[in-house]
Structure formats: C-alpha cells, structure tokens
Amino acid sequence: MDRVRTGLELLVSAPKAGRRRVGLVTNPTGVLPDLTAAAPALLAAGVPVTTVFGPEHGLRGTAQAGGGEGDTVDPVTGLPVLDTYQRTGGELDALVASSGVDALVFDVCDVGARFYTYVWTMYDLMGSAARLGLPFTVLDRPNPIGGAVAEGPVLDPAFASFVGRAPLPVRHGLTPGEIALSVNRSLGCELEVVPMEGWRREWHFDRTGLPWVMPSANMPTPDTALVYPGTGLLEGVNAAEGRGTTRPFELVGAPYADGRFAAALNDLGLPGVRFRDTWFTPTFGRHAGVVVRGAQLHVTDRAAFLPVLTGVSVLHVLRALYPDDFACEPFLDLLWGSASLREHLEAGRDPRGLCPPPGPPRGELLYD
C-alpha cells in the first residue's frame, strides 16, 4: 500500500531554521506515522516550540462537544498549553500575544464536514496571526472521507458561526491546507502550507496507510466520519444522533420513533446505504438513559453514498412520520448554513430538493 506523508512528517524531516518561538496548534491527531505526537516530534527536530494551543476537546481530546480542557501544562514536553476554545477576536489575539510566540503552526486532522470546528479554530487563529503580524503554517493532512466530492449547500454568510465561518458546502471535500488557502483571500495572513506527499483526492482514510487517531470523543472511526456530514444535522433537532453509544452518528432515532422509521428510510432507496431497525440507550447527551427506537446506517457502497442527502432524508422521515413529536431547534440553521432546511421541515415540505447535486470541491486545490 502507498503511504501518505503528512505535512508534519515532511517538516520534521527537513525543519526550517530562523523561527525563535513557535506556537503549535494541535490535538491527539497531530502524530507521526509511528504515533509520536507533534510537539515532541518538532522539538526533537529542532523546531523551537514554546507554547501549545488546544482547540475544542483540548490537546488531549478529553473534553466532550462544546468544551475545552482549560489552560494547563503538557506533561510530555512541559510546555504551557493554552485553550483557544470560545476565544475569538481581540480575546484570542491577546491570548496569542501573551504567549510570546513569533509564529503559529497548525497540525490537526479535520473530518470533512463544514460544522466540525477545528478548521474554524484555524480560521480564527489565522485572523489573529494577520492582526499580530505572525506567519502561519498549516501542516496538511488527508480529508478522511475523500476529497473528490462536495455535497450540500454553501454557507450563507448571514449564518456564520463557529460551526461555519466561511462559505463552504456541508461536505467540502477539502484538506485543512486547502481551506486555509481558500479563506486566506479574506484574512490576509502570511500563510504557508506544507502539502502532503502521495495523497489522492478519491482516497478514503484506509488508503492513506496512516494510523487513525480519534479526532474527538465521538468520532471513533473513519466510518463515523463518513456519515457525520449528514447525521450530524440531528444535533439541530429533538432526536438522538448516537452520542453516548459506541456508534455515534451511525445510530439515529428518537424516543417517539417506531418500526416504521427504518422501513421508511429503506423505501427511499438512498444510494450506498441500508438501514437496520434497532434500539439503543444513550449513556450521556440527548435522551441519556432513555430507550430509543431508531436505525443503524450500514454504508454498502461508500463511493455512491451521499451523507448530506442521507441526513436530510432522516430528518424528512422523522418529520413525516411523527409530526406531533418532531421539533427543530435554532442550532439547525447554523449547521445547515441557512434557515431553509428548518423552514421546509416546519412547514411539512420535503427538504430533499435543498441538496444540490454532488460535484467536485471548489477552492484552492493542492492535489489531483
């Protein structure tokens, strides 16, 4: 099997001189192929990392969604770790300035969905770098669900938030480095991307030859990442997205669902997926401790599978079968990037037409 060489591996093999104090933005996914973490790997290569910055879930990945680990010290390197979560604008600028770093380096794996927050931490820190006059380097990593297809609507800027700062589709098909190059047109920081070697756009993560490290507490496998751009939308309605189970985002349902749910989803004939009627009890999160009837997604053909269309179809079936119980929440607008999905569901209209046909990703593409 061919193996991808990440930006981190390439930088470690040929470190650049001249930077005095480097701030490293990373989490458990920032590793070499031998699983050496980014901070000790860069220090061993002579890169003068002096501060580590943690995104949502933290440097160690211990925090659940919507949380960070706070400011602490990395027990491996002894470096200070500063928590960037929920810090933006002037507050984030002050945090970076207080660290005394001369440059920022970003090494975090994304999962290919616009509402996953790591690339927006990157975006916010690029803004800080521009305002503070610091160079910003992205050590690129694969998009684990492939980079050949983009799917779903582009974000309406009126709905920009930490689950989407810039106009990308829901499944964007880009790498972190490509997103950085695309958004830097408006940010204007001194940006460098260290591209990968050997990655092909059509590859899913199992083709990369790299070790999978959980990007966050509820993203245990590449299978989770594949369905997440669709079933992650359930976080904006009163249904269960599978958090608190061993198959988050692959198990979906609601306490008010019944055996018609999985059958109706299968009747839609969605490409590349089948649904199995099942029950589950989340141990935390929404509907914790409650028996939920629902369905497990079984992806049968990942090349044909359309996660965004599938997720919208799940919401459509929940609304159609259980109109008196199903309810949308304001967060759905931020996940979708506009009010259109919520408005269709609340009006009882079929929202599947809101999904444009899938196509190639758009932006500053680095790879064939």
UniProtKB/TrEMBL annotation:
Domain Peptidoglycan beta-N-acetylmuramidase NamZ C-terminal: 226-352
Peptidoglycan beta-N-acetylmuramidase NamZ N-terminal domain mapped to chain residues: 22-222
A Pfam family annotated for this UniProt entry: NamZ_N
Annotated segments matching region Disordered: 348-368
Xref: Gene3D superfamilies: 3.90.1150.140, Uncharacterised protein PF07075, DUF1343
This protein's name: DUF1343 domain-containing protein
